[in-house]
Amino acid sequence: MSFKTFRGGVHPGHYKNATEKMPVVPARLPAVAIIPMAQHIGAPCEPLVAVGDEVKTGQKVGDSQAFVTAPVHSSVSGKVVKIAPCNHPLGRLVNAVYIKSDGEDTWHEDVRPHPDWEQASPDELRKIVRNAGIVGMGGATFPTHVKLSPPPGAKIDYCLVNGAECEPYLTSDHRAMLERPAEIITGLRIIMKAVNAPKGYIGVEDNKPDAVEAMKRAAAGLADVEVHALHTKYPQGAEKQLIKVFTGREVPSGGLPSAVGCVVHNVGTCIAIADAVCSGKPLIERIVTITGSGINEPKNMLVRVGTPMEEVIEQCGGFKPDVRKVILGGPMMGLAQPTVENFPVIKGTSGILCLTSLEVELQAFSPCIRCARCVDVCPVSIMPLFIGSAVEQGLYDRAESANAMDCIECGCCTYVCPSKRPLVQWIRLSKGDIADRRAKK
Question: Which residue has the higher pLDDT, 74 or 440?
Answer without folding.
Answer: 74
